[in-house]
């Protein structure tokens, strides 16, 4: 969950897309509504994924190493249409991730080094931005086509790394969103700060558990 639903790439993508869309201060309330609705929808999807997995694969004691195994395993447990629905959902999520994750990485790198970025630019105007974007899509496509590579294992490792990096990004975000010189009257209020600090502390604890548990197991 941490590293998949709460992700470093989403923090970069969201702020960069706001700039790229050319939103102004008067559009801020609509952007906030967009974020709130997206967060609620994402939580609902994650909740039902957990519930469905618990009552099907986990209950049957089935462990998976690929998406194909998950779809095949669901068929006898939840009916013929379950595997079709799983495949359709996975396809939709994959198409979204194929675009958003390389795009957010391109935004972050170009903003860090001062390269021109944005989807409104032509390739000649932002070669670094489109070059990084294209490279990531091609490299990822080649990686998933390598025979006998456990994509589930790759996914888990990358999401664990993302989960460890997430608190660092969030702490910087808290500091920035409470800077009156930058934010003016739009700094976080007390309720927002309480919620985000609880979230950050929770994620830090989970990251420590993730990092320390293999060491503790080795010692024991």
What does this structure look like?
By secondary structure, the protein is an all-alpha fold. 77% of the residues lie in helices and 0% in strands. The chain contains eight helices and no strands. The protein has helices at residues 8-20, 28-58, 67-78, 80-113, 127-144, 151-177, 180-183, 190-219. The two termini are 27 Å apart. The model has no long low-confidence stretch (mean pLDDT 82).
Summary tags:
single chain; 220 residues; mainly alpha; 8 helices
Shape: globular
> What is Rg?
20 Å
Q: What is the end-to-end distance?
A: 27 Å
The computed structural class is mainly alpha
Helical run tally:
8
Biggest sheet character: none
Helical proportion?
Answer: over 70%
What is the typical, i.e. mean, pLDDT?
82
Set down the secondary structure blueprint.
Layout: H1 8-20, H2 28-58, H3 67-78, H4 80-113, H5 127-144, H6 151-177, H7 180-183, H8 190-219
Helix pairs in contact: 1-4, 3-4, 4-5, 6-8
Quick recap:
The protein is an all-alpha fold and 220 residues long. 77% of the residues lie in helices and 0% in strands.
